[in-house]
């Protein structure tokens, strides 16, 4: 109990006071040390044990694997006596490799296993999905001789996490056809798929299923419903569920704020951010990104600058995306020189998106002089020919043309031609 609660000193104190210790007690103490990152004490106790069980070895392998030290984890795995090697010791080793992204090593141990449990199949599926290898994850799933709900959840959640929403929904249908009952994990993943693909009708059907099956409305389900309704544009239902929640974590606040921002209700996004602060809920990097995006699209320059000034206060490190939103905000408002000066001052190397946002603002506000400076910066930053330079040259040419600087526009197109750039054919869409 003490060890699992992170109080390793009291755990050891109780251990030392015990008149008699057995292998179970020692395993608990080793597990506590390893979970709390004290590998030195864990290893020392391990070496002192007169007798070890499979659990002893598992605690050591799993402990090092969770700390990312797969070399030592493998050394312990290779030392496991033959009579103590079982499906669980191998499964823990496979899971360690999968969690640390080494799928090649995981597959070798996996294929060498004489028998496999449902846990190791799910580890392999999740491991491949984590690496973005959707095809190989499905190959492993199809090999499972007898599937259970955990295996299906690994497949559906993996599809959803990789943006394969149609596949996730198809797997969900197939799972039910095979007679499996859904649980909170299944439904959270399916709601995520609906949110990503904007399938409001399917999302509503899932909501009805939750009500009919009387599935517990835990934090994950409620967050999933808020996120689905918000991303699908049904902000009324999203807000209704949100307001009815007894506990709101940063995930559901972010879902509401980003939902407002995506669907043009920028003022509401800013108001929700203020509410979040007033209630003492700590915003994270996603919160700031959503609010800054809302400020940029709604033209709320003052509010955007105030929001950005709070990033450090909440211990959030501003990323290139946050700076991109700020450049976009200033650019849309016509404060181009201010945006340019900010780019020159930011501690991170400006990427194509940031320069592109400023160039786009130059086009809107017909500022060819600043556009010239921007293109020089881009060329200086990246001397090699690439698609980013090409798109910036096209954009700059369009800026000149739009501002009636036809000679400069033609010169820019000639320059592009000489450098071997191809102008991407235009496309139009009728909505």
Automatic annotation (TrEMBL):
It comes from the Eukaryota. Keywords: Repeat. PPR repeats lie at residues 22-56, 86-120, 148-182, 183-217, 249-283, 284-318. InterPro entries: E_motif (IPR046848), PPR_At4g14850-like_plant (IPR046960), PPR_rpt (IPR002885), TPR-like_helical_dom_sf (IPR011990). Pfam families: E_motif (PF20431), PPR (PF01535), PPR_2 (PF13041). PANTHER family: PENTATRICOPEPTIDE REPEAT-CONTAINING PROTEIN (PTHR47926). This is Pentatricopeptide repeat-containing protein. It comes from Ilex paraguariensis. The lineage of its organism: Eukaryota, Viridiplantae, Streptophyta, Embryophyta, Tracheophyta.
């Amino acid at each position: 109990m003490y060890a699992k609660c992170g109080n390793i000193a009291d755990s050891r104190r109780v251990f030392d006071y015990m008149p008699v210790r057995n292998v179970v007690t020692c395993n608990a103490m080793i597990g506590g040390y390893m979970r709390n990152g004290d590998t030195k004490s864990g290893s020392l106790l391990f070496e002192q044990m007169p007798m070890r069980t499979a659990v002893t070895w598992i605690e050591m392998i799993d402990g090092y694997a969770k700390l990312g030290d797969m070399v030592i984890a493998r050394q312990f795995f290779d030392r496991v006596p033959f009579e103590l090697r079982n499906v669980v010791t191998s499964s823990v080793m496979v899971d360690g490799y999968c969690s640390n992204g080494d799928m090649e090593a995981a597959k070798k141990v996996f294929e060498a296993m004489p028998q496999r449990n449902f846990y190791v199949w799910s580890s392999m599926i999740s491991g491949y999905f984590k690496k973005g290898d959707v095809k190989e994850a499905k190959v492993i799933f199809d090999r499972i001789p007898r599937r259970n709900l955990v295996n299906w959840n690994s497949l559906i959640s993996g599809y959803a996490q990789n943006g394969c929403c149609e596949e996730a929904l198809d797997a969900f249908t197939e799972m039910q056809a095979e007679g499996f009952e859904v649980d909170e994990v299944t439904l959270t993943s399916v709601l995520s798929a609906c949110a990503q693909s904007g399938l409001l009708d399917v999302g509503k059907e899932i909501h009805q299923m939750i009500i009919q099956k009387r599935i517990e409305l835990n934090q994950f389900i409620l967050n999933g419903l808020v996120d689905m309704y918000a991303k699908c544009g049904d902000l009324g239902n999203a807000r209704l569920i949100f307001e009815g929640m007894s506990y709101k974590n940063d995930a559901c606040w972010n879902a509401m704020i980003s939902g407002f921002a995506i669907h043009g209700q920028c003022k509401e996004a800013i108001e929700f951010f203020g509410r979040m602060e007033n209630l003492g809920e700590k915003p994270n990097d996603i919160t700031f990104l959503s609010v800054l995006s809302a400020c940029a699209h709604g033209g709320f320059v003052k509010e955007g600058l105030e929001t950005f000034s709070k990033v450090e206060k909440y211990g959030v490190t501003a990323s290139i995306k946050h700076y991109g939103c700020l450049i976009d905000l200033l650019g849309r408002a016509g404060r181009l020189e201010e945006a340019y000066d900010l780019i020159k001052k930011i501690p991170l190397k400006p990427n194509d998106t940031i320069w592109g946002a400023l160039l786009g603002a130059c086009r809107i506000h017909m500022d060819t002089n600043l556009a010239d400076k921007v293109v020089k910066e881009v060329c200086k930053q990246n001397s090699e020919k690439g698609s980013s330079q090409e798109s910036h040259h096209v954009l700059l040419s369009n800026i000149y043309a739009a501002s009636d600087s036809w000679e400069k526009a033609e010169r820019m197109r000639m320059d592009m031609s000489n450098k071997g750039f191809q102008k991407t054919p235009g496309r139009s869409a009728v909505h």
